[in-house]
Amino acid sequence: MTGDGVPAGRLVCRAWVVHGGHQCKNNRITMALRMWGSSTANALKISCASKPHLPLSRCFSTVLDGLKYAESHEWVKHEGSVATIDITDHAQDHLGEVVFVELPEPGGSVSKGKGFGAVESVKVTSDVNSPISGEIVEVNSKLSEAPGLINSSPYEEGWMIKVKPSSPSELESLMGSTEYTKFCEEEDASH
């Protein structure tokens, strides 16, 4: 029990849900809490996406409104003439601790569905595909020194590339937050 009379586990679960899945410093504790929280939430039939004022989330993997998502687990944020691209919180969570990021050079181009880089974690190396086509106008050079930004801030500081879309209509074929949340839940249930 905690000082406020709430069982300690219940307080931890509430903190994880309310704060959208921010990570603890210790990966073993994080993994144990996620497994416990997820099984508890499933047993209690708790849905993390039930509060419209919070970002939609898949119990510990955050899915933000206003972004577009690919089935290969990359997101796109289109603002003006530039689109920012990175892997999703769901993807980084499955990869584990990211230790190296391979990025392309600015000025090159990307094609929808084709690889442009790779993310290496302590578990696996995974290619990263571009959800849209276009010219690379910027790469996140911070990732060469701090690849863990992909884990700690997948939707903000951990972005990988910025692209000038050559075919903005490609964005229409990507999923919104609700569709992507459902896609992740179905994908996880099948494994």
Automatic annotation (TrEMBL):
The modification N6-lipoyllysine is found at residue 123. Keywords: Lipoyl, Mitochondrion, Transit peptide. The keyword Ribosomal protein does not apply. Binds 1 lipoyl cofactor covalently. CDD domains: GCS_H. It is found in: Mitochondrion. InterPro entries: 2-oxoA_DH_lipoyl-BS, Biotin_lipoyl, GCV_H, GCV_H/Fam206, GCV_H_sub, Single_hybrid_motif. Its cofactor is (R)-lipoate. Pfam families: GCV_H. It comes from the Eukaryota. One of its GO terms (biological process) is protein lipoylation. Gene3D superfamilies: 2.40.50.100. Belongs to the GcvH family. The glycine cleavage system is composed of four proteins: P, T, L and H. This is Glycine cleavage system H protein. It comes from Hibiscus syriacus (Rose of Sharon).
